[in-house]
Specification:
Elements lengths: L1 H18 L6 E2 L1 H14 L6 H7 L8 E2 H11 L10 H16 L9 H14 L10 H15 L5 H9 L10 H9 L9 H15 L5 E8 L6 E9 L2 E5 L7 E6 L5 E5 L8 E5 L4 E5 L3 H20 L4 H163 L4 H59 L17 E2 L2 E2 L4 H17 L1
Helix pairs in contact: 1-5, 6-9, 6-10, 7-10, 12-13
């Protein structure tokens, strides 16, 4: 009952405000008597003229304020209202009182009837505080519903721009500003008046008349069993059906409760898309125009019955309540945030006062420190005079220490001179060792060259022996081929002579290598002698460095497999023996 009272008060507030011609917040008693009589008539409340006279009987003949009229309105009218009156007639009466004063028809693209429906929708969506306004969130909700009903696309960006240009001094729009917003076509561009009017009517039916669904369907009669087309209107607890959509000729109602149910039926008797509504005392067979419509109606009726079982209000009213609760919650959070900000500000101010107190204490401490500094300077002067004598004595001691330091410095310089000489000797010794290392590398190179020559000589000898063996084998094989073999022998003899010449050349190269080796050996001996002389010098300086001595200097032949097993003389003897054998063959 409280929700119905709040809805009625909104429409009555518009009527009371319209009667306040000079905007003083008061209305004459005669006008209020007429308003009260009209309210009792449309709300079907018994009119009590005696109570009306008693309420307004006083010495003051002036107008009555809203607060003065509310006690009578609550006690004698609103508390007696039952839900048996025509809401449209009630709203139309209040609308008639305020429309002429506030509505500028020439500037609107919608009819007065459409403006009336927007006015009623405003009362449904507005906040429960006066003066009545509709907040931007509800404006967006309403415009979205209208755009959806017109079959257009919602322009969120355009609405955001509208909100940006919204007056910050206002929390929302009044009813006349809302009618102007919808009537000027700002959010219905490209739509004709009939489309806009149909959209307003559809939203009005849903939000105000609680029409959950409506449309033409075929209904089977209970007596004659014939099928007749009817205009069905589904509301939260009833389905009404009419001859046509103008709702003038009502043919009957289907009362819904939590015990009702809806079922789909198979096609029969030439009728398709059938479904059945079962109630307590009657059953209704209905045929939709197509399967989609059938499913939509079954779903809508099923949802309505489910809401009746749960005891919940219609979806749009429940959604409106949720939006209001959400706004209250956000407002409470904002107020809590503002309260916390104020507490923080107070705490900040307290901190500032504490900091000011600390600053004053610091200034006092600084003044005390200055006094103490003055005393400290005076004490310092006294101490300076007392320490001057000790300073003179310390100068004397420092002079003595400087003399001792000079003596130690002289000794240190001599020691450093000796170290530098030793370092020079060490560098020269390093150069001598480097010369010795280079001589050893040269010796190793000569050894490798000699080994290579011996290897080539051995290879040539093996080749010559092979040719000689082939020649002997050819002689023993056949005498008939002697001439040919002789020729081959002559060729091989020539090759042998060339090989001997090459052998002589290799012998000459070997001798040259030996001469180089002798030269390197002499250099090595000279480096060794030089190292020994440096060794003697180093030994005179406390033996800081020990020289590396070279290896044995005995002459040996070197092959690829290491030192040779025979001497140079033995090698020459073997060469002469081999040449003698070749000559005898």
């Amino acid at each position: 009952m409280g929700g119905l009272k709040d809805e009625l008060l909104k429409a009555i507030w518009h009527a009371f405000t319209a009667l306040d011609l000079d905007h003083s917040g008061k209305v004459s008693k005669s006008q209020l008597k007429v308003l009260s009589h009209n309210l009792c008539t449309v709300l079907k409340v018994p009119h009590d003229p005696v109570a009306l006279e008693e309420h307004f009987r006083d010495d003051d003949e002036g107008p009555v304020s809203n607060q003065g009229y509310m006690p009578y309105l609550n006690k004698f009218i609103l508390e007696k209202v039952q839900d048996n009156f025509d809401k449209i007639e009630f709203n139309r009466m209040c609308w008639t009182l305020c429309v002429k004063k506030n509505l500028a028809k020439s500037l609107l693209l919608i009819t007065e009837d459409d403006a009336f429906k927007v006015w009623v929708i405003f009362n449904f969506l507005s906040e429960d505080k006066y003066p009545l306004i509709i907040v931007p969130e509800e404006i967006e909700y309403l415009l979205k519903k209208l755009t959806e009903a017109m079959g257009g696309g919602w322009q969120q960006e355009e609405f955001e721009n509208y909100k940006i240009n919204f007056d910050d001094s206002k929390d929302g729009l009044s009813v006349w500003e809302l009618i102007e917003l919808i009537g000027n076509g700002q959010f219905s561009k490209g739509m004709d008046r009939q489309t806009v009017s149909m959209a307003i009517n559809e939203v009005f039916n849903e939000l105000i008349l609680d029409v959950l669904k409506q449309g033409y369907m075929m209904k089977k009669g209970h007596r004659r069993k014939n099928w007749t087309e009817r205009w069905f209107v589904l509301k939260p607890n009833i389905i009404s059906y009419y001859v046509s959509e103008d709702l003038k000729d009502k043919k009957g109602d289907i009362l819904l409760d939590e015990n009702c149910c809806v079922e789909s039926l198979p096609d029969k008797d030439g009728k398709k898309c059938l479904f059945l509504i079962k109630c307590f005392d009657k059953t209704f067979e209905i045929s939709a125009s197509d399967k989609k419509k059938k499913q939509e109606w079954i779903q809508a009726i099923h949802s309505t019955i489910h809401l009746l079982k749960l005891g919940n209000p219609p979806p749009h009213k429940e959604a409106r309540q949720r939006r209001k609760e959400l706004r209250k919650k956000l407002l409470a959070e904002q107020e809590e945030l503002e309260r916390q900000m104020k507490e923080l500000q107070v705490a900040n101010e307290n901190k500032q006062q504490e900091l000011e107190t600390v600053r004053k204490k610091l200034e006092e401490a600084a003044s005390r420190a200055a006094e103490e500094e003055k005393k400290r300077l005076q004490t310092q002067v006294e101490l300076q005079a007392r320490f001057s004598t000790e300073l003179e004595r310390e100068k004397l001691i420092r002079q003595q220490m400087e003399e001792q330091v000079a003596q130690k410095s002289s000794e240190l310089e001599q020691y450093l001179q000796r170290v530098r000489e030793l370092e020079d000797m060490y560098l020269k010794l390093q150069e001598a060792l480097e010369d010795e290392r280079q001589a050893r590398q040269d010796e190793e190179t000569v050894r490798k060259l000699q080994a290579r020559l011996l290897e080539e000589e051995s290879s040539k000898r093996a080749e010559l022996e092979k040719w000689h063996s082939e020649q002997q084998q050819a002689i023993r094989t056949t005498e008939a081929e002697k001439q040919e073999l002789e020729n081959q022998r002559a060729v091989k003899e020539q090759a042998l002579q060339e090989a001997v010449e090459q052998l002589r050349q290799l012998e000459l190269e070997r001798k040259q290598a030996l001469e180089q080796y002798e030269g390197v050996k002499k250099k090595l001996e000279m480096a060794t002698n030089k190292t020994k002389s440096w060794k003697d010098k180093v030994a005179q300086h406390e033996g800081l460095i020990r020289l590396i001595e070279p290896g044995s200097k005995n002459p040996h032949l070197i092959t690829n497999w290491g030192p040779a097993a025979f001497t140079q003389a033995e090698l020459e003897e073997r060469e002469k023996s081999w040449k003698g054998k070749k000559a005898t063959e």
